[in-house]
Write a structure and sequence with these properties.
The structure holds 2 protein chains of 2 kinds. Chain A contains 13 helices and 15 strands. By secondary structure, chain A is an alpha/beta fold. In chain A, helix 1 runs parallel beside helix 6. Chain A is globular. Chain B is built from 11 helices and 10 strands. Chain B has an 8-stranded mixed sheet with strand order 2-1-3-4-8-7-10-9, with helices on both faces. Chains A and B meet through helix 2, helix 3, helix 4 and strand 9 of A and strand 2, helix 2, helix 4 and helix 11 of B. Strand 9 of chain A pairs parallel with strand 2 of chain B.
């Protein structure tokens, strides 16, 4: 049977990718440039018996998502920068209480209202650090409409596998452009279900580390009675201020991702075999970077591209390996150097990191990147 | 035989955090009696709260309990109820949590008429943080952040709930303990968003700043100001001055609750 093929926006594709992954609850609040995700979900979810709710604000949307997730629903919310700022409070709750959910955040300019209809990549640090306290982060970076579909589906698996909120971070260009996409067949993308408890209700503890760094999560209403709180807690879910427990639990919640970086991190290597200059790029900017690498190659420059697909956790190992053998990095990004900080950290001063930073709402064009590639000596 | 509260409580979680003289424990006992009257399936019951002294209540009760972030109980609970309408969803918390930081979620839960019961313990103060004024602190009263008297007008929670669209609104007091379970039971049975405000006391952070010499004096005040709705019908405006109405203040059985309304959306979507 021929695959279902459509010509869609990134936002629309993300909604379909979510439904492919089994999403059956959406809680959102209207915000440009992500609104199409909510619109498609409001059409599609009731068709499959799922629930769509437009909440009174972004915090409420995030809260409703986590409440629904605790009953076993697979939940999605979509937003953009100002909404992400508001959601931070409850993202932190999702981190400490370890509740799966997917946040599709379309990056526009900022701070504050910024440029609502312009593209940006300036939420990458907000996604990483945007809630108080220590916590792990997983964030995926689509660079095409197909990847909006695929990565949103994958984000559901990651959120269930690691029991935490997971971000998908398209820039506005990727979210609003239209491309041909293929709807996936069942089984084509691995869908990881929630790890359900194997013990009877009377023995169940929601943070039982005897099952590993990611304890099984029982659904509300499935016969398991337990407590969930945003306070530091013990394995049974009840609050504690005992120093050694708080320390161990906080470390576990970060370790559950940091110890699995190799399983989580995905990337694309383009013409890297003999590359002397490596353009590190992500999202729509990687499309200009690919063109620029081709142009540079035509001019006899050994250029290549490392495309970041998993932004968080950051591909430290791969960048460090490249830093040991190339002449320099070029990093084009639609912010004032956020990924650049990470590159410099990984390069450890061994090679130069040359940035092209635009926050004027205009995409970075290949010519700019080619010129910068030539600056690497 | 004395009522057996323990079968509803989680073993080993008492003593509770509340101060001597606080009314929250009286409200918790009322809730437990209400759940017992209705024979609620505790495996299928969620109690959701925000932050503050009153929001610690769920931790003591043996069911699905969700102690959320400050003010967010109604929003989390909305997600629980939407995703699993067959669950009994009860919210609890204080006046600051529910009407200040959580005010937006509160009014919208009322407006949606989602089938949940919200028990608001109104002690006119932020107790857990040491007695700052809340939207329910009476004008002129003292709090740690209104040392010269509170300049703010205060909310009437029941009127706020009715105005926002709640279809069952009741008020009781911590003094009238025997009425609490009946009000809560009726609220839970009501199909739609129900609000039960319980006038409470905080001797530690509110009473001592406002010249209440003892818990007994605070309890007596609750006794004196409360007037049952029925009795109030026969009283003059003059007689009702300074009094607070108690009992079921508002009930509307004609409006469809939210999850039933959304089931119709699903039907329409699937019929296409």
């Amino acid at each position: 049977m021929a695959k279902k093929v459509e010509f869609l926006q990134g936002n629309e594709a993300a909604a379909h990718g979510a439904i492919y992954a089994g999403c059956n609850f959406f809680g959102g609040y209207p915000i440009t440039p992500s609104t199409e995700v909510a619109e498609v979900m409001s059409i599609e979810l009731p068709k499959i018996g799922g629930k769509f709710i437009q909440m009174e604000d972004e915090i409420g949307a995030m809260s409703a998502c986590l409440g629904a997730s605790l009953t076993g629903a697979k939940v999605l919310t979509s937003t953009s920068g100002p909404g992400l700022s508001l959601k931070q409070e409850i993202i932190g709750y999702g981190c400490i209480a370890e509740i799966p959910c997917v946040i599709f955040n379309v990056m526009r300019g900022g701070p504050s209202t910024g440029m609502p209809t312009g593209p940006s990549q300036s939420d990458v640090m907000c996604a990483r650090w945007g809630t108080h306290g220590d916590h792990a982060t997983i964030a995926l970076m689509p660079a095409s409409v197909q990847e909006c579909y695929d990565m949103t589906a994958e984000a559901f698996s990651l959120s269930e596998k690691y029991r935490m909120p997971v971000h998908v971070l398209p820039d506005e260009i990727i979210a609003h452009m239209r491309e041909r996409i293929e709807f996936r067949e069942p089984g084509e993308i691995e869908i990881t279900p929630r790890k359900a408890p194997t013990v009877p209700p009377e023995q169940y503890k929601p943070y039982d580390t005897s099952f590993g760094d990611v304890p099984p999560l029982a659904n509300f209403g499935s016969g398991y009675k337990y407590h969930v709180t945003g306070l530091n807690k013990m394995q049974d879910g009840f609050p504690t201020t005992k120093a050694e427990i708080v320390q161990a639990e906080e470390e576990r919640q970060v370790r559950k991702v940091s110890a699995k970086v190799d399983d989580i991190v995905t990337f694309e290597e383009y013409m890297l075999e003999d590359a002397e200059v490596v353009v590190v790029a992500y999202g729509s900017t990687s499309r200009s970077a690919r063109y620029a690498v081709n142009v540079a190659r035509e001019q006899g420059i050994k250029a290549g591209m490392f495309r970041i697909k998993t932004f968080w956790p950051f591909p430290d190992k791969q960048i460090k390996a490249l830093a040991a053998k190339v002449k320099g990095f070029v990093i084009p990004e639609m912010n004032l150097g956020m990924c650049s900080i990470e590159l410099e950290r990984c390069a450890q001063g061994k090679v130069p990191v040359l940035g092209i930073f635009r926050v004027d709402g205009e995409p970075i064009n290949p010519v700019q990147i080619v010129e910068k590639i030539k600056e690497v000596k | 035989m004395a009522f057996d509260y323990e079968k509803y409580l989680r073993p080993g979680k008492l003593p509770h955090i509340w101060c001597p003289g606080c009314g929250h424990g009286i409200v918790m006992k009322g809730l437990i009696r209400a759940m017992d009257t209705l024979k609620l399936d505790m495996k299928n019951t969620a109690i959701v709260s925000g932050i503050g002294c009153a929001s610690r209540l769920p931790g003591y009760i043996d069911c699905c309990t969700l102690h959320t972030a400050h003010g967010r109980a109604a929003a989390f609970a909305t997600g629980v109820k939407m995703a699993k309408p067959e669950m009994n969803v009860i919210l609890c918390g204080g006046d600051g949590d529910g009407t200040a930081i959580g005010g937006n979620h509160f009014i919208h839960a009322c407006r949606r008429n989602i089938d949940m019961t919200y028990i608001i313990m109104n002690n006119y103060i932020y107790g857990m943080t040491g007695g700052q004024f809340s939207p329910c602190t009476p004008t002129g009263h003292k709090a740690s952040t209104t040392p010269y008297g509170n300049p703010d007008p205060n909310f009437d929670i029941a009127k706020l709930a009715i105005g926002a669209g709640a279809t069952f609104v009741a008020r009781g007091t911590a003094f009238h303990a025997n009425q609490i379970d009946k009000l809560i039971a009726e609220a839970i049975q009501h199909k739609g968003f129900s609000v039960v405000e319980i006038l409470d006391d905080c001797p530690t952070t509110y009473g001592r700043r406002n010249k209440y010499k003892s818990v007994i004096e605070m309890m007596n005040r609750l006794k004196e100001v409360a007037v049952p709705v029925k009795a109030a019908e026969k009283m003059s405006a003059e007689q009702l001055k300074g009094k607070v109405l108690t009992g079921v203040l508002y009930k509307d059985d004609t409006k469809c609750d939210y999850t039933t309304e959304y089931a119709k959306v699903i039907e329409r979507a699937q019929a296409k």
